[in-house]
Each structure stands twice: as structure tokens, then as C-alpha cells.
Structure to design on (343 residues):
């Protein structure tokens, strides 16, 4: 099979559909596995906090804010257990707490607090007066919502508390604790997201790092000098910094963008980003000759869904599109070979 990075621009344009098939065939989706990252809460830890909360509240029959606060101070991650009962994100919980108690809790604080308890889930916390005021507000609002359950809504609406464990307020919660299903496991899965989406969002940068590390390994094998940029870094001449610049930002001759997408909408946005880099390479260039080569390294099923978008990507990069499976051929088939010193 011949790949687009091995073809001339004329061959690419004449046989674009075949080259799209070739790249799509080499795409793999890695959404089934994710790095845990810092602050990942293991199930036994989560369950231990749940059991402490269950004992202190007599099987959730005594949802007193003072009792719950005491458990949180001893087992901080029990705050995540309560949030999982609500089914809220940290900023959503903060907003509801401010409405119910009048205590202002901004989204940044809510996220920082959530991260703090995940980093030290079972280490007792010493609260400052300001911190205790905010955490108490969160717990007070949660207890109130969990006691009263789902309010009546119009037929065309559904409330976030319309769940088996919160529909009828505290009665539903007590029933969930007593019934046969493993309620702490249900809460743990809810805590991780739809499913695992909340965790996936929190480690999205780590997932991207896995692909970037593979690119680094491919270039290191040949002793190629490169500049790997940081997130949101400003690089002269670029409105958004590329992932890799070869040999340096002062003389960019090869640009590499590493992109992962598991859905077509995100893939389209990322392809547009790479197209923009290709346009930059020819802007104000004599005869329209690219000032630097643009290489795309892509991973994930999202890029294989819309074939028309893949065509745009291949044409924008002049066929220089690689997947993790094809990184062994990256250097020999691009301008990177001019910078190889070993291998």
C-alpha cells in the first residue's frame, strides 16, 4: 500500500480517495484506556469514605450538615461522595450552594477544592474559617437538596435530581443504601462521569502527551533537533504555537501538529487548525512556495468519520499525514530527514 506522504502532489490530487482510505485504515482509537493521572481516586478509597459517611448518618437517615462536615474533615474525599449523590460538577454545586446559602463560591475555588480532596483523599484537613464557611455552605445545600429530592416540573422538562436515589428525597437515598445494589459502586461510576467522562476531561492533556512522546521518540532516534512548545505558549509568527518546531522557533522549517480526536466535530476543528498552519506557510511567500513544511500526526476514530475533511487535511499538508502506526516512516518521508544526524 502506498501512503500519501510517499506520493507527489500530482498523484495525491489524482488519487485522493485512495490515499484517504490508506490513512483511515491505519487509524486506531484508544478511547478504551486512559492514564489515571494525579488525583485519581481508587474505588477502595472512595468506598471507605462512603462507609464513613453511611455510619455517621445512620444509613443516610440523619443528613445533618454538621455530621457530614465532621466526616469531610476526617475523610476529605467524602465530599466527592456527596457530590456524586447530587450528580453535579464542582462548579454546579458551588452555584447551587450560593443560591441556597448566600455564601459566594466561585468556580475556580470549587475546582481547586475538588482537586485538593482528590490529591489527599483520606488525610484529615485543617480548615481555615473562610474554608469552613464555604465547605459548610456546600454541605448545607447538598443536605437540603438530598432531603427534599426532585421538585415537580413541567412535562417537557426533567430535573437533575430525577434519579433513583434522589427522586423522593431522603427516603430514596435511604432505600438506595439498604437495597441490594452496590450503591457505592454506582456513586463511584457517577463520580467518574458518563461513564468516565469527568476523568477523561481531567487527563486530556496526559492523553495528548502519549502521542507527543511517540513523536519525540521517532525524532530522537535520528538525533533531530526540535523545539517542543508548551500549552498556550506564544511563538513569534504564529497565532497559536505548533506542537513541534524543527529545528527551532527562530528558523521554523518543519512544523508538526499532534492531534487526537474521538468524534467528528472535534476532528473537524483540529483539521481546520492544521489547514490554518498550511496557509501561514505560504502567506507572503514568493511564488506561493511553503516557508515551512506542515506535518500532521493524528490518532483516534474521529478523523476517519468524515472523508471530505480527511481530503482537506491531506491536501493542506501535501500528504504529510501520519498515524501512530506510521511514525516509523515519519523521518524518511518528510523534510525531517535533512536534520537527521544518526540512524
Amino acid at each position: 500500500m502506498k501512503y500519501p506522504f510517499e506520493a507527489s502532489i500530482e498523484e495525491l490530487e489524482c488519487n485522493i480517495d485512495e490515499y484517504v482510505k490508506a490513512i483511515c485504515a491505519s487509524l486506531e482509537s484508544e478511547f478504551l484506556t486512559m492514564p489515571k493521572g494525579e488525583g485519581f481516586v481508587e474505588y477502595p478509597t472512595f468506598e471507605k469514605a462512603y462507609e464513613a459517611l453511611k455510619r455517621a448518618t445512620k444509613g443516610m437517615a440523619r443528613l445533618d450538615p454538621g455530621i457530614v462536615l465532621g466526616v469531610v474533615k476526617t475523610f476529605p474525599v467524602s465530599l466527592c461522595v456527596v457530590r456524586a449523590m447530587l450528580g453535579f460538577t464542582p462548579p454546579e454545586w458551588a452555584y447551587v450552594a450560593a443560591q441556597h446559602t448566600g455564601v459566594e463560591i466561585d468556580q475556580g475555588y470549587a475546582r481547586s477544592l475538588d482537586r485538593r480532596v482528590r490529591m489527599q483523599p483520606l488525610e484529615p484537613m485543617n480548615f481555615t474559617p473562610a474554608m469552613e464557611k464555604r465547605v459548610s455552605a456546600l454541605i448545607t445545600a447538598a443536605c437540603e437538596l438530598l432531603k427534599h429530592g426532585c421538585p415537580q416540573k413541567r412535562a417537557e422538562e426533567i430535573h437533575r435530581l430525577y434519579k433513583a436515589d434522589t427522586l423522593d428525597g431522603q427516603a430514596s437515598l435511604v432505600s438506595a443504601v439498604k437495597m441490594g445494589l452496590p450503591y457505592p459502586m454506582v456513586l463511584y461510576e457517577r463520580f467518574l462521569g458518563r461513564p468516565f467522562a469527568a476523568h477523561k476531561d481531567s487527563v486530556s492533556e496526559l492523553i495528548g502527551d502519549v502521542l507527543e512522546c511517540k513523536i519525540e521518540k521517532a525524532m530522537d532516534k535520528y538525533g533531530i533537533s526540535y523545539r517542543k512548545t508548551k500549552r498556550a505558549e506564544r511563538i513569534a509568527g504564529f497565532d497559536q504555537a505548533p506542537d513541534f518546531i524543527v529545528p527551532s522557533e527562530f528558523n521554523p522549517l518543519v512544523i508538526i501538529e499532534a492531534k487526537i480526536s474521538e468524534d467528528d466535530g472535534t476532528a473537524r476543528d483540529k483539521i481546520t487548525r492544521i489547514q490554518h498552519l498550511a496557509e501561514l506557510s505560504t502567506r507572503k511567500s514568493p511564488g506561493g512556495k511553503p516557508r515551512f513544511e506542515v506535518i500532521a500526526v493524528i490518532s483516534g476514530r474521529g478523523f476517519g468519520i468524515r472523508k471530505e475533511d480527511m481530503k482537506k487535511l491531506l491536501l493542506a499538508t501535501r500528504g504529510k499525514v501520519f498515524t501512530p502506526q506510521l511514525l516509523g516512516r515519519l523521518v524518511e518521508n518528510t523534510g525531517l530527514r535533512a536534520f537527521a544526524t544518526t540512524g
Summary: Residues 129-148 form the longest helix (20 residues).
